[in-house]
Records
---
Amino acid sequence: MTSWHRAGGPLLLSLAAVVWAAGPESPLPSAEYIVAHMREARAHNRAQLHPYQVVRDHQLFGKEQKKKSEVTAYIDYVPPDVQNFTLQRNNGANMGEIIVRKILESEKQILTDKGASDVSPANYSFRLLRKDVLDRQPCYVLELHPLRKDSKLLDGLIWIDATSYMILRMEGEPARAPSWWIHNIHVALEFREVHGMWLQTALHSTANVRLLGQHTLISHDVEYKMDEMEAAATAVTGP
């Protein structure tokens, strides 16, 4: 055990988070200041991206949270805009595989036009609500309002790390339903640092499917592979 843990490091972090959330009020930065720093941090992160493969588990639940399907996706990413995937249905109905395929196809489309869905003043208006703590990390909570009806934009909230200004969590409802068959959609996305890159690592989505009732999709990353993807990318593009 390290001296940090022996000295109660996790406890000190928790106490610092409590002081941040409940301590004496200090002037908060403006929403414009936070968003500007967030955009700078995201631009820096995109410059640090390198090829990787992620293994992502998806579980689909139907009424009464009964599992209907489980799908594993193997996703290869080569920056800035190449993403390929293969799916393996572990069990259950093919509905889960159809949903996961549509999600990943949508992600591929977003990569080719990041500006259309970026969390930026070009797509959203912002309002600072409060400071908060998420997983013991001090953060700012901002309200998001899309500037147009677009299924790639969320109307909801965003949690921004108060130190790095990276997005920790984003949740809300799509500004426009992607299909007549699906309504009352709520999406929550989680982000974390992985091998020096800030990535989306989990998704929790609920929706009412016409004729079939409420369904829930939960996905999370279970494994990352870096060296193999970097070697393959170098072989294709050259040193």
Note: The chain has five helices and ten strands.
---
Amino acid sequence: MTIDPERLLQRFLRYVRVDTTADETAGVYPSSPGQLELGRMIADELRDIGLVNVEQNRYGIVTATLPGTTDHEAPAVALCAHLDTSPETTGKNVQPQVIRDYAGGDLVLSGDPQQVIRTADNPELGDLHGCTLVTTDGTTLLGGDDKAGLAVIVEAVAMLQQATDVVHAPLRICFTCDEEIGRGVDHVDVAGLNAAVCYTLDGAGAGDIDVETFSADLAIVKVRGVNIHPSIAKDRMVNAIRAAGDFLGRLPQGQQSPETTADRDGFLHPYGIEGGVAEATVRIILRDFDTEQLAVKADLLRRAATETMASVAGCEIEVNVTPQYRNLGDGLVKEPRAAAFATEAHRRLGREAQQTIVRGGTDGSLLTEQGLPTPNLSTGQHNPHSPLEWACLDEMVLATEVLIELAQVWATEES
């Protein structure tokens, strides 16, 4: 079965031009209208391909089924990607730039020449000479995270629908919204998918099977002070902003932060602060592969709060920690076929897969926690959430081939 790279490319380019930026402040689900627009577009494509039970529910979640072609009842396999893009960089008016037959070297982006994809920062480019790359123009993100995943899944089911002689397991499609703000599976009917296993298509490069993610909590730290006119503030004002600064200064310096950690090291990451003299709010994400270490990090925050309240007279600090997602590796041990069959799909294609960890989370973390084992697979995306984001079409083709082969591997099993 031969993938048509140009058809896959045009599918991807259609998707990235739709602004689906998630908005944490919107108060609705999905948090941006573009997610509904793109979902409707893809649902129509799935109907045209010939999938059944195609639906976009009132929350924007798109589901569909490609029936299996086995002579026995094989386990259903779910394929998942997300419609939204990160709010860290705008996804409005994306102008994708297609670079065919990449000859090597740095890539200066046309919309903002100050934005340069450098080979020194992207060593994987050294292995992609002659490939087709897609970049931004430097003024927006690209949206390869996760529209590369969307395009790969749709192309794979289109190929399988056409190939009537290929024996494959039933496939359940699930495209989610607001994954980038931690709400991707809030309105997914996991039981309704009726699948034995799921794969998120939300990974970088090619050949990776992500079998562990961070476990994650969110800390919201409320710092309360006393506001009064500065002219009469002596011995009466308590500045919540200064108290917040004191609190942040008590967190580990030069360690336990994203910029000082790698591999399996966890971190504390203050990523947002707002407020005024009377009250300030600090948002901090807690990450660790060892779930039990999240409680240790939360205790560190509470100790820092206690020390600040002792140091800054009159301030009050409240630390509220809520769970976000858990290491998907904790759940994958219950279904070893999930990663093993993905490895086998690569082997049948003459490739060597590597089982990897991801210093982040995917919808798969939450799906696994809810009882649906969900490793994450490569889709050819690179530098997510950034104006320097890019994708490799050749790696997207490889990902499509893996999905087609994976559907055949699962066809050998019986429910």
Note: The domain at 215-325 is CATH 3.30.70.360 (Alpha-Beta Plaits).
---
Amino acid sequence: MTKRTQRPYVICHMVPSIDGRIVTSPWKLKSGFHAEYERTAKTFGADAWMIGRISMEPYAGGARAASPRRKRPTSPRASFIAGGDATAFAIALDPSGKLRWKSSTIDGEHVIAILTERVSDEHLDDLRAKGVSYLFGGRDTIDLETVLVNLRSVFGIEKLLLEGGGKINGSFLAANLIDELSVLVAPVADASVGTPSLFDAPGAERASRHLKLISVKRRPGDLVWLRYAVKR
């Protein structure tokens, strides 16, 4: 069995502007825009969704400020699995353990934090107390493919929505871990400089991927829904 069959099927589902920007707050789009995004997302029947630390902060309840360098962690670096009866999951890539969780669920979906082994013992204690599951993705950096394999083997996740930001999407693209791209193209020309784009990660330009068009659909609010398979 290959690692491809051992990991979840990954769909990157996003709403970029016509020029590929993904910071939607300044666009002042019509009401129902976000609801349409959620409606299209649900059609995939995914078991989980994943975003990065900054995007997850509003859902988690905030983040810890930078703290002085601590002594080497002493607690064992073993995964913690809670929410044993969960069937839907919200996954946060949080390498340094900065997210301050208020709950172990988001809208009924069990939270899984993806960490590096350098996180503090205090943070792990807090996650266990809150009932937040966590997996380690590596000692100092996160190995995305290993994380995906573990998400499937430990939690049974077979289909995952990757929902940004740009650096995380770009890292998945560079690692050739995206199987399908789903974009709701917003009727906006952003033209901003220096704001995140759909795929925005160092080194990603050396790992461009060719796509095969699956479908094109017009959606309410002048949105266009494009789906592509990533060629292998």
Note: The longest strand covers residues 211-219.
